[in-house]
Amino acid sequence: MLGLASVGLVAMAIVIDLIVGDPRSLPHPVVIIGRTISALEQRWNQGSEKRRRRLGFMLTATIVLGTFSFAWLGLALLTWVHPWLGLAAELWLLATTLAIKGLAEAGRAIAVPLANGDFASARKALSMVVGRDTEQLDEAGITRGAVETIAENTVDGITSPLFFAVIGGAPLALAYKAINTLDSMVGYQNERYSDFGYASAKLDDIANWLPARLTALCLWAAGVLISWQSSAHYWRRAIMATCREAPRHPSPNAGWPEAMVANLLGVQLGGTNVYQGAVSHRATLGSPLETLTCSHINATIKLMHGAWLLFFLLMAVLTILLSVGISWL
Question: Which of 96, 100, 121 shows the shortest CA–CA distance to 18?
Fold first, then answer.
């Protein structure tokens, strides 16, 4: 896909995701990818550290290249049968790589009961999207978890898939989702996965490096555009603060959207979390100029929508300019 064709198809996929989301009645490619990873992990993740690291590289290559190849060949076959069939399939596959509607709904599922004082329902909704223990969290803790999740997943679930979709259509967008799924399943720094998941974690870091930083910039631009609704213009210091604070995050990429959102909202993210009873301390991002409340979840959703829209417009302009430049050569 090149130029206007790629931009147009991705735009239609965005509309599909905004309207339909991820209906549970339809098969999802990520589920198939996840089951394949799980089956291979059980078979290959054993032996010496050297062997596990070597097989981990093989797992990464097999899943990513296999996903791209199956998607490309499948679309080519359907297009050969009928161009409209190939187009419909590509639109559906592109839409499955996006989580705009799903991420917004997940945030609202936390914010609505929290605003009504139903902490139990808010904690339960948060536990569906985070790994930390939520049973003892107060309003600020619930809000922090939701804001961090929405900010981080703006990259993983929206802008990175958009980035690769515009460049290489559904096959490359699905290959990215395969990378992201590998990282979420085996990319942990623990005894079981530190060697076997090394390649998956590093490839995920590489794939998200540019989209994460562009997303932070788009979040800032979105914050500037909607700042008229608030008397607090935190965006004035957000870029410098984010550049200073983002490297504190244990992930080389997640810190950028999280730090930017924290500084745009005038809140502090990070700090202490509890995972299955074990206390974990993470560097803080942002300054506690405001106390975290459920209103910050809605503000983060608004920033998320502004960021992905600006990100897509940026990618569209760059792609069209590039295709025009190539045609002049």
Answer: 100
Q: What is the pLDDT of residues 15-64, one digit of tens each?
A: 999 999 887 777 789 999 999 999 999 999 998 899 999 999 999 999 99
| β-strands 269-275, 278-285 pairing | antiparallel
Give the count of alpha carbons within 13 A of 152, CB side only. 20
- Which pLDDT does position 67 carry in this prediction? 98
What confidence score (pLDDT) does residue 229 get?
57
Q: What are phi and psi of 280, to 5 degrees?
A: -130, 130
E strand residue ranges, the chain:
269-275, 278-285
Residue 98 and residue 82: Cα distance in Å, rounded?
25
Degrees, nearest 5: CA angle 55-58-59: 90
SS3 137: coil
Q: Are 103 and 153 in contact (CB under 8 A)?
A: yes
Q: Residue 297 half-sphere exposure, CB side, CA atoms within 13 Å?
A: 26
**Which pair of structure tokens corresponds to residue 250?**
């244990």
